[in-house]
Design brief:
The chain is an alpha/beta fold and 216 residues long. The chain has 10 helices and 8 strands.
Length: 216
């Protein structure tokens, strides 16, 4: 039975793709390069930064990442938004009696979630810098281990929902069932090959999975 549902942050419960696109377009305009489309941005979502930069701008320069980050806080504030079914799904999962949490490589995931009035649904939010101090980034399972220890819920009663291969690898390393969501650039088949327990297209599918698991 699922008692704890853990979520990745970007492209799982919130859509950060437009903020990322505009950040790289800021760099493109600054450098006199062609602007990038949302479609192209989505092709490189969840890839390493050098690969992302090469795919969108043609090459990787460390100074471009600094330029991008100079705008990221403003763009995230203006452009990151929850997916349309996020709030209702989280409310339904709480009604089903689940504890909810976030585990993200983002340093402070609580900032976006508080601003978007989503933090109220989560019992714990874990980022690379909060609340336990700096922890290794995913796919190291340290953040999931800390969360499980904090809640006292065994790994077999927890699931981790994420949009990328990194999330499924992290879940497996922590002994937690992984659910892939196809909001990024990974398909149902790719999640299956990665060893995901389930894969979904929309967050709204999660309550049914919880109910079916409880009945099994």
């Amino acid at each position: 039975m699922i008692k704890l549902m853990i979520f990745d942050h970007d492209m799982t419960i919130v859509d950060s793709s437009y903020a990322i696109m505009e950040g790289f377009n800021y760099v493109a305009r600054h450098e006199g390069l062609p602007e990038v489309s949302h479609e192209l941005t989505m092709q490189y979502i969840a890839t390493p930064i050098p690969t992302f930069c090469e795919g969108l701008l043609g090459e990787y320069r460390p100074e471009w990442i600094k330029l991008y980050r100079s705008q990221s806080e403003r763009l995230e504030r203006e452009l990151i938004r929850p997916f349309p079914d996020t709030a209702q799904t989280l409310a339904t999962l709480k009604e089903l009696g689940l504890k909810l949490a976030v585990v993200s490589n983002r340093e402070h995931p609580s900032l976006v979630l508080e601003r978007e009035d989503l933090a109220k649904y989560f019992d714990v939010m874990v980022g690379a810098e909060e609340p336990y101090g700096h922890l290794p980034y995913k796919p190291n399972p340290a953040m999931l281990h800390e969360l499980l220890a904090h809640t006292g819920i065994p790994a077999e009663q927890a699931v981790y929902v994420g949009d990328a291969d990194l999330d499924i690898v992290t879940a497996k390393a922590a002994g937690v069932r992984g659910i892939g969501i196809t909001k990024g650039n990974f398909s149902h088949r790719e999640f299956e090959l990665l060893g995901a327990w389930k894969s979904i297209g929309q967050l709204s599918e999660l309550p049914k999975i919880v109910q079916e698991d409880a009945a099994s």
